[in-house]
Write a structure and sequence with these properties.
Radius of gyration: 23 Å
Distance between the termini: 38 Å
Strand content: 25-35%
Shape: rod-shaped
Helix content: 40-55%
Strand order of the largest sheet: 1-2
Structural class: alpha+beta
Largest sheet: 2 strands, antiparallel
C-alpha cells in the first residue's frame, strides 16, 4: 500500500484539512521484480555469449 497526504490551504495559507490517497501497489511491485529478474537473466546470458560459452 502506498499513500500520499497533501494539505489543503485557504487563501491565507492556513491549513483547512488534509487529503490522503491510498493505492494498492502489489501488482506494480510484482511486475518490477519480474522485470528486474529478467534483466539479470539477460545480463548473464549476454556475459556468457561474450565469453563464447554455450547458452542454456
Amino acid at each position: 500500500m502506498e499513500s500520499r497526504t497533501r494539505p489543503v490551504l485557504d487563501a491565507r495559507g492556513q491549513l483547512l484539512y488534509l487529503v490522503q490517497i491510498g493505492c494498492d501497489i502489489t501488482a506494480q511491485k510484482a511486475l518490477e521484480l519480474a522485470l528486474r529478474e529478467r534483466a539479470e537473466e539477460l545480463a548473464r546470458a549476454n556475459a556468457e555469449l561474450a565469453r563464447g560459452a554455450p547458452e542454456g
